[in-house]
Amino acid sequence: MLKGFVGTVQRALINQRKCYASSSAVLARAYSTRPAADNRRLEIDTMSQEANRKINSVFAPPSVLANPMNVPVKLLMGPGPTNVSPRVMQASSNQMLGHMHAETFQIMDEIKAGLRYVFQTSNPWTLVVSGPGHLGMEAVLVNLLEPGDKVLIGINGLWGKRAVDLANKLGASPIPLEQETGKSISLDEIEQGLSKHKPKVLFLIHSESSSGVMQPLVGVGDLCRKHDCLFVVDTVASLGGVPFFMDDWNVDAVYTGSQKVIGAPPGLSPISFGPRAVEVIKTRKTLIKSYLLDMNELTIQWQCGDPSIPRIYHHTPPVNLFYALREALAELTEEGLENVWKRHAQAAARLHAGIHSLGLKLFVQDESDRLPTVTTILVPEGIDWKRVVQFLMEKHLIEIAGGLGPTVGKVFRIGLLGCNATPEKVDRVLQALKEGLEFAKLQGHL
Amino acid sequence: MLKGFVGTVQRALINQRKCYASSSAVLARAYSTRPAADNRRLEIDTMSQEANRKINSVFAPPSVLANPMNVPVKLLMGPGPTNVSPRVMQASSNQMLGHMHAETFQIMDEIKAGLRYVFQTSNPWTLVVSGPGHLGMEAVLVNLLEPGDKVLIGINGLWGKRAVDLANKLGASPIPLEQETGKSISLDEIEQGLSKHKPKVLFLIHSESSSGVMQPLVGVGDLCRKHDCLFVVDTVASLGGVPFFMDDWNVDAVYTGSQKVIGAPPGLSPISFGPRAVEVIKTRKTLIKSYLLDMNELTIQWQCGDPSIPRIYHHTPPVNLFYALREALAELTEEGLENVWKRHAQAAARLHAGIHSLGLKLFVQDESDRLPTVTTILVPEGIDWKRVVQFLMEKHLIEIAGGLGPTVGKVFRIGLLGCNATPEKVDRVLQALKEGLEFAKLQGHL
Questions:
Q1: Where in chain A is the domain with CATH 3.90.1150.10?
Q2: Which residue in chain A has the smallest CA separation from B111?
Q3: What does the pLDDT look like over A282-321, one tens digit per residue?
Q4: A100, B1, B55, B328: most buried by Cβ count inside 10 Å?
């Protein structure tokens, strides 16, 4: 094989002359790789002086990697990622399994069962996209939309805008259904949009984490059926933390992220398609503009259909993130979905009460629009929000976030996600926020 | 907030009547979520009988998740994922950090430095795509190709075919440059293809893991410059295990996977774009058909340009996979790239010698075409390859693979990747393979 390697280089050099593209740098480098791949003293001895010199000309290794990695343990009370439980952390450090091993298939089947429970659906096409929540958005739109298709997109913060950008990139025709940042969109406004534009897809953000708004969904699915439109929902920042019933609410496609309420590390996007969405995907006229996200292929590796149809290799997924997601779903299942909803509702109620007692105001005016999992708080007059956020991070290793997109500079954002939705964590972040505000008022130095 | 939640449901119900889409199931379900999100005994007492009944109608939790997760420790001697070192396993179990924290940026910068070293490039656009190697292929093609663009794709196994499929999905015009499975493509054949078709991009698979062929690359970049064509290379199964010099070989874009020689878990795709590729991306006429993969956006979060330009949030990446990749690159850097190349070459030489002494034949005839990291072995006459693979897995917890795509049923595939490219691992897999072949000959029962 070593002779083979040398042969490769030599043949390449001959070919190279043949094609008149000789480059002394390339020749030298090619030779210089010989001893690197060579354990025979003899050949090293017989190398040219130039080759010996060039050995040392491989780009030097970076010194920064000689330092120890620095990963402090922080309390993540921003809009995500959230902290993961010891059980989930432990799971992600298991040794790798092959993506086609029986144990991996078992874990994937358990994940599918857990996700059907969290989405409250019986959809066979309930699986995981091998990328962050953002890839879930891409997976839904790239599978459902064809060039020119009209998609009505609710916009009351950053994420609706992002979906419009993506729809444009895919050659679809997005129609913005705009609402003031900090408010939800009413059923009347939605029905007017459906009647006027007759879109193929309605896309709503259940949890607008940039503004802290929760979009009511009850009844929307029925409107979409009435107007022969697919109902797609982004639940990245809400799923598991608030009631969601995919089947009863007639949601045709939904996705979320692993790193929010579910409490796994970021990097996976759970997704589900109902029968009407599957039909649309199966009857497309144009090719799906992705291979990794092509549900016709991915659902075979996940065996979402007839269990007698064997799985076929599609891609190599992040298996140790699967371990973590499986354990996060197991913890959620043990606690029980209704109890997890209740815990997040109680934590949010405690946080909101504490915010008021600090003399602060919530950004979302209508109580019924407030997202329990991500709370937005108005930055008080004369306070530099950056100094407050910085104080919490530097003095307490606690993350809270500033605004995002349309709320930058206007709000603080506090997340209550997964294992951080507890009275103790709420009290810790309230105490730290109190100190941070005092620090910012005093204009002190960190 | 609880009142708010109830208000949401009630308003939804009112709206629902307004839109004539009343569904008793939806009403009941909506009510049934009240106590779930409600911690006040009073309200629970005042609920309707129906609501109390419906509480229990939330889809039941899946029992499979009550079982312990089963992740046996195996020796992964297939074409990947490979085993990860204890240091890398430990790294991936660190607590989460936010994607915009200083420590995360530090880790991302260290990863960029490590990747420039492994790719042997000084390209500023050297970063990581938040998905498996397959997403790296999509990232390269979706950024470089516009509708109708001609891309010449070398095909001598599965991966070239996959790239053709993807190019078609993206609306480009792939031109297959076909070669017999098990053989590499010569510089003459490449130049003929370039002269005849004048493609915008030449796409070659450096390491065709389905056939065990390594494509010689020296001189190809010069041909591409001569024919004003971008040179794109897939190094998923080879990078780090064999010499590769992105800059000296005039490679314009390259990607790999985290789970092969680099020795991190799967789920990340290191990628690098040279100046000519960046220019093509910057001067596109059409939008890039992805948001997550849009290098104009992603390179800002990775701060691939001027370090004085602040990072902007793009998406939430898999931070604990970053920890693992950072540590894997640190281990590789400590050992030294030339030493890692040499270790893989020596392990392959030892494996190939052992294969011959077992009376087996390698699938790739030309020594100089053999890929050190993935070895393909002809399945002997009268041997059921599945029984051999099954024997190794069940009796030794050792993974070797059968063929893939065009080599299914014809070959065994043994990978020597990262920490498994050692004489000890080679001897273990050879001994197990010997026993597996004897078992298959004897037609014994497992």
A1: 337-445
A2: A65
A3: 999 999 999 999 999 999 999 998 889 999 999 999 999 9
A4: B328
Nearest neighbour of B367 by CB, restricted to A4, A35, A36: A4
Instruction: Choose, out of B218, B227, B325, the residue to mutate when testing the contact with A (most A CBs < 10 Å).
Output: B218
pLDDT in tens, A27-53: 333 334 333 333 322 232 233 333 333
User: For chain B, what is the HEC assignment?
Assistant: CHHHHHHHHHHHHHHHHHCCCCCHHHHHHHHHHHHHCCCCHHHHHCCCHHHHHHHCCCCCCCHHHHCCCCCCCCEECCCCCCCCCHHHHHHCCCCCCCCCCHHHHHHHHHHHHHHHHHHCCCCCEEEEECCCHHHHHHHHHHHHCCCCCEEEEEECCHHHHHHHHHHHHCCCEEEEEECCCCCCCCHHHHHHHHHHHCCCEEEEECEECCCCEECCCCCHHHHHHHCCCEEEEECCCCECCECCCCCCCCCCEEECCCCCCCCCCCCCEEEEECHHHHHHHHCCCCCCCCCCCCHHHHHHHCCCCCCCCCCCCCCCCCHHHHHHHHHHHHHHHHHCHHHHHHHHHHHHHHHHHHHHHCCCCECCCCHHHECCCEEEEECCCCCCHHHHHHHHHHHHCEECEECCHHHCCCEEEEECCHHHCCHHHHHHHHHHHHHHHHHHHHCCCC
Nearest Cα of chain A lies from the Cα of B113 at a distance, in angstroms, of 6
Chain B residues close to A33, C-beta within 8 Å:
243, 245, 341
Fold of A86-335: Aspartate Aminotransferase; domain 2 (3.40.640)
Across the range B10-30, mean pLDDT stands at: 34
Q: What is the pLDDT of residue A57?
A: 61
CA distance A4 to chain B (A): 4
Hey, are the CB atoms on A103 and B317 less than 8 Å from each other? no
Please count the residue pairs, one from chain A and one from chain B, whose beta carbons lie less than 8 angstroms apart: 464
CB contact under 8 A, B81 and A66: no
Q: Does the reported pTM lie above 0.95? A: no
Give B446's pLDDT tier (boundaries 50, 70, 90): low
Please, which residues have CB within 8 angstroms of residue A124's CB and are 6 or more apart in sequence?
A299, A304, A305
Q: What is the pLDDT of residues B339-398, one digit of tens each?
A: 999 999 999 999 999 999 999 999 999 999 999 999 999 999 999 999 999 999 999 999
Check whether B48 has a pLDDT greater than 60: no
Per CATH, the homologous superfamily of domain B337-445 is Aspartate Aminotransferase, domain 1 (3.90.1150.10)
Task: Give how far B239 is from chain A: nearest CA, Å.
Answer: 14
Cβ contact (<8 Å) for B131 and A133? no
Give the contacts of B173 (CB within 8 A, at least 6 positions apart).
Answer: B148, B149, B150, B151, B167
Which residues belong to CATH 3.40.640.10 in chain A? 86-335
ipTM of the modeled complex: 0.89
CB nearest B292 (choices: A135, A186, A327) = A135
Contact A372 B1 (CB under 8 A): yes
- The answer to whether B245 touches B221, Cβ cutoff 8 Å, is no
**Is A243 in Cβ contact with B337 (below 8 Å)?**
no
Contacts A372 to B, Cβ<8 Å: 1, 5
